[in-house]
Write a structure and sequence with these properties.
The chain has helices spanning 37-43, 48-55, 114-117, 121-131, 146-155, 157-163, 168-172, 190-197, 221-227, 243-260, 262-266, 281-316, 398-402, 416-422, 425-434, 444-449, 458-468; strands at 3-6, 9-15, 18-21, 31-34, 65-72, 79-86, 91-92, 104-113, 209-218, 233-240, 276-277, 327-332, 335-343, 346-355, 357-359, 378-381, 389-394, 405-407, 438-441, 471-484. With 485 residues, the chain is of the alpha+beta class. The protein has a single domain (3-413, 455-484), classed as tRNA-splicing ligase RtcB (Alpha-Beta Complex), CATH 3.90.1860.10. Helix 8 runs antiparallel to helix 10.
Length: 485
């Protein structure tokens, strides 16, 4: 197959796993989808391809609009979408970042093995569910006051270190050291702050989770060793974002941008792509507020890590330090950052928008932490709670091919509404228990929405990323315990 038709759009296979929509009409650049034929057929079942073509209309977009192998329909801009937009002459688009700003994932290592957990799975999942706030609404690990919230918005994980919720190695093993210096808490809407104040350290709902896993397969021994990963090791994934604060911030800035820059909006094929021109006051205000929300999300995941360490101390009767509960890495998914990339042979500062996509920088890039700079940035790609997840390494081709990006997960196959029609939460929970995967959630509906059958094949997503050279497969992990909102 060398072409693929989606409605009035024709994609051409320009090389293996790379499908291009040629530039035509008002498109400013071509669009590219990274997918095998089977993944492309799944991606084409919703409006992902149309949304990707729409994204090529954004002012200042460079090279091409991209869709990662886990792509699916989002609001205006597809989930799995990546766009590099000129930071001087282009724009910044909240819809191309997402409502859950810095929804992201981290992996915490331990020195425990699977045998150490044998017989304690139910005790552990119950203790985690009791200790980690989850679900809709308020409640967090801490009930911060206005001063604490502003400090978290301004300083991110640095604030957690100061307050005793983190150690310095936690900060140095986060993307950007868990801190965006461009954050301006004063540009965060008050209603967003009000929503976030009592949610500091909480999972929320939807696809957010905490999962205890074991390393099942090691594919690259030298990189796994550099990451401190080995077969049968117990690790923990924490996946959540900026909660109500990020959602409210995105909502309010989208409306402000629509009103203030209606002329630009009229040039775009979808209102959800509303963008503020680079250099405008709204662009500066939104970027500073978004960076503050990014910091908030890192604090959120760090506070959950702090509480998780306490649970493991109680269950296993040893200090978390003796259990080896060190942070491997924390990566952001919904984010835009100023990064320098090669465009037509010239280093160019871009707003790199990643919506449901993960940074995947290779060895040598200065943004990669010192501990991993010789091998490349860790990339964490979760599957469903019934399938494996992966740790990858930033690939040698990522900067040229994908603005240093890759997939952020398996990617949804069906909507939450459809999932609840097709799956019954208790049945999913029972089936997983038969496979020795222990799941606890606020409701059966949540489990149904996140049933394994709701997601694409994460093995195929990772295979495509690996074969494109944008991320290298290091280890695969399998679920043991999972808590959800």
């Amino acid at each position: 197959m060398t072409t693929f038709e989606v409605g009035d759009i024709t994609l051409r296979e320009i090389r293996e796993h790379v499908w291009e929509i040629p530039k035509e009409g008002d498109m400013r650049v071509p669009a590219r989808v990274f997918a095998s034929e089977s993944l492309l057929e799944e991606i084409a079942e919703d409006k992902t391809i149309q949304q990707l073509r729409n994204a090529t209309h954004l002012p200042g977009i460079k090279k091409y609009a991209l869709c990662m192998p886990d792509g699916h329909q989002g609001y205006g801009f597809p989930v799995g979408g990546v766009a590099g937009i000129d930071a001087e002459d282009g724009c910044i688009s909240p819809g191309a970042i997402g409502y859950d700003i810095n929804c992201g994932i981290r992996m915490v290592k331990t020195n425990l093995t699977y045998d150490d957990l044998n017989g304690r799975e139910e005790k552990l999942v119950d203790a985690l569910f009791e200790a980690i706030p989850s679900g809709l609404g308020g409640g967090g690990v801490i009930e911060g006051d206005h001063g604490e919230l502003d400090a978290a918005l301004e300083r991110g994980v640095e604030w957690c270190v100061e307050e005793g919720y983190a150690v310095e190695s936690d900060q140095s093993h986060c993307e950007d050291n868990g801190f965006r210096a461009d954050a301006t808490p004063e540009t965060v809407p008050q209603k967003a702050k009000d929503r976030g104040q009592n949610q500091m350290g909480s999972l929320g709902s939807g696809n957010h989770f905490l999962e205890v896993q074991r390393v099942a397969d090691v594919f690259d021994e030298p990189i796994a060793e550099a990451y401190g990963l080995h077969a049968d090791q117990v690790v923990i994934l924490i996946h959540c974002g900026s909660r109500g604060l990020g959602h409210q911030l995105c909502t309010e800035y989208l409306r402000e941008i629509e009103k203030a820059h209606s002329g630009l909006l009229a040039q775009l094929p979808d209102r959800e792509l509303a963008a503020a021109p680079a250099g405008s006051q709204l662009a500066e205000d939104y970027y500073g507020a978004m960076c503050a929300a990014i910091n908030f999300a890192w604090v959120n995941r760090q506070l959950i890590t702090h509480r998780t360490r306490s649970v493991f101390e109680d269950v296993f009767g040893e200090p978390w330090e003796d259990l080896g509960m060190e942070l491997l890495y924390d990566v952001a998914h919904n984010i835009a950052k100023k990064e320098v990339h090669d465009v037509d042979g010239e280093p160019t500062e871009l707003y790199v928008h990643r919506k449901g996509a993960t940074r995947a920088f290779p060895a040598g890039r200065p943004e990669v932490p010192d501990a991993y700079r010789n091998v490349g940035q860790p990339v964490i790609v979760p599957g469903s709670m019934g399938a494996g997840s992966y740790v990858l390494c930033g690939g040698e081709n990522s900067l040229d091919v994908s603005f240093g990006s890759t997939a952020h997960g398996a990617g949804r196959l069906m909507s939450r509404t459809q999932a609840k029609r097709e799956f019954w939460g208790e049945d999913v929970q029972d089936e997983l228990r038969r496979r020795k995967v222990y799941v606890k959630a606020q409701s059966g509906a949540t489990i149904a929405e996140e049933a394994p059958g709701v997601y694409k094949d994460v093995d195929e997503v990772v295979r495509v990323s690996d074969e494109l050279g944008i991320a290298r497969t290091v280890v695969r992990v399998e679920p043991i315990c999972n808590i959800k909102g």
